């Protein structure tokens, strides 16, 4: 059941007409948008052609203002907790077990990550992010929740080639609200390499900003994709992508795709760990 309103799915936010109508409906958002647009021009000029460097600078600026707001959903702690809980509940509802080995791409300040770290066996959580600033905040979250003994890995990255990670290791790969800020080449790089680190029977869940109209971007920060574009991109790398209808029922603006090896059978969470690696040491 897909419940996103049709008007949201067909809107092209990059069009002037849309911006004017939006500004008339939300005059209080005009000034913040103009500030963002000014920063966008400056940073795009400084990091011309290098999206990762550009977005890292966006994150540095946003994190300095508010780490909660930097990962989306506004500066409210309640919202930060609620969005983390939503991600956690969803994966638990899909059979996540403490023995799973999770890679979180774009882990931010561990909005969901701290819950996964607490739940998974020690050493079973691996978070990566392009932003050193937000990873410093992630460490603070870890301390705040007293999770040092869970021994999570938190690693800054420059790209999504995942070349420092082992083959067929992760039973769950998770990227929430990361591809909504990623141009096609970043998503393609990830899909080109994620299959190698995905354990047999494992899956890669990611959210994206969905459009059923023309694909578009807002500033260099927000990207809107058609589902089929991402499904085809996954297919190009021997992966199969499935639209997650049950995610649409949750109060979240993005959609979710689940990617598996094209030849994989339906996953039984935890089973991949049992079958492939019987004794995992933290
Ligand atoms: C909106 S935040 C979401 C953070 C976290 N997933 C959550 O739900 O709280 C997006 C995060 O993805 C990171 N990010 C963006 N592009 C990335 C990329 N190409 N590789 C790794 N991390 C990326 C950002 O630095 C930021 O921390």
UniProtKB/TrEMBL annotation:
Residues 103-204 form the Methyltransferase type domain. The keyword Transferase applies. GO terms for molecular function: methyltransferase activity. It comes from Streptomyces agglomeratus. It comes from the Bacteria. Belongs to the CFA/CMAS family. This is Methyltransferase. Keywords: Lipid metabolism, Methyltransferase, S-adenosyl-L-methionine, Transferase. Pfam families: Methyltransf_12. InterPro entries: CFA/CMAS, Methyltransf_12, SAM-dependent_MTases_sf. One of its GO terms (biological process) is methylation. CDD domains: AdoMet_MTases.
């Amino acid at each position: 059941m897909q419940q996103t309103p049709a008007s949201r799915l067909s809107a092209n936010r990059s069009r002037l007409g849309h911006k004017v109508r939006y500004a008339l409906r939300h005059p209080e958002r005009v000034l913040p948008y103009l500030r963002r647009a000014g920063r966008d021009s400056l940073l795009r000029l400084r990091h011309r052609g290098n999206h990762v460097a550009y977005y890292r600078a966006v994150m540095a600026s946003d994190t300095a203002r508010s780490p909660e707001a930097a990962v989306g959903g506004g500066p409210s702690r309640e919202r930060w907790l609620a969005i983390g809980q939503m991600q956690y509940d969803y994966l638990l509802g899909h059979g996540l077990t403490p023995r799973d080995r999770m890679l979180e791409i774009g882990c931010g300040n561990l909005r969901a990550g701290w819950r996964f770290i607490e739940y998974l066996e020690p050493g079973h959580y691996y978070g990566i992010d392009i932003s050193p600033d937000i990873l410093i905040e992630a460490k603070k979250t870890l301390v705040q929740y007293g999770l040092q003994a869970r021994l999570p890995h938190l690693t800054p990255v420059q790209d999504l080639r995942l070349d420092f990670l082992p083959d067929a290791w992760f039973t769950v790969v998770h990227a929430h609200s990361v591809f909504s800020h990623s141009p096609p080449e970043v998503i393609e790089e990830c899909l080109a390499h994620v299959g190698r680190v995905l354990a047999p029977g494992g899956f890669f869940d990611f959210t994206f900003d969905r459009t059923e109209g023309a694909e578009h971007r807002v500033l260099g920060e927000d990207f809107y994709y058609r589902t089929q574009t991402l499904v085809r991109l996954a297919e190009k790398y021997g992966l199969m992508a499935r639209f997650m209808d049950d995610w649409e029922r949750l109060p979240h603006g993005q959609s979710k795709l689940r990617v598996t090896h094209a030849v994989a059978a339906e996953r039984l969470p935890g089973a991949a760990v049992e079958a492939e690696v019987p004794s995992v040491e933290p």
